[in-house]
Task: structure prediction
Amino acid sequence: MKTQEATETTTRVGHSGYGMRQGGEPLGKGSDRYIPSLGYPWLTSLYDPLIGLTMRDTSFKRRLVRQASIQGGQRVLDLGCGTATLTLLIKRMHPEAEVVGLDGDPRAIRIAQAKMAKARLSVALNLGMAFDLPYPDGSFDHVLSSLVFHHLTRMDKERTFQEVSRVLRPGGGLHI
Result:
């Protein structure tokens, strides 16, 4: 199996420690405030071991990737990629696809970058919010998301679905 060279990625963080909007405006008020998946930033490093002990995440994530029917050359967004477990799986199962991960937690993105470097895979990892995607219209063939939507408020879920619809190409699909 041919190994791809790891790509260094950059993330943008606003002055408050939250992500930045597409125009460069910092996030940080109201529903834009990012809350880490385990509730506290210091628990982020424990996310992978805890999920591994409490869920069969590899099993359902493999089914999710198979369901997407990703083809060679397609662009795929892992929305709310966290520490990039699903992102890595997508790239390993479909090395010919261009895979992008997006998450609002800078700590999770740093863990994801380390995992990508260790796996020697080339994947772009971006800091941003699901309801304010930093990508042009029609950028992706597939958007996959796992263990994310239950963290969003109703309003942010609606905004996220609008954003996903915007960045999907005609005929593209959202897989949750």
In short: Residues 30 and 108 are 21 Å apart (CA to CA). Residues 1-31 have pLDDT under 50 and may be disordered.
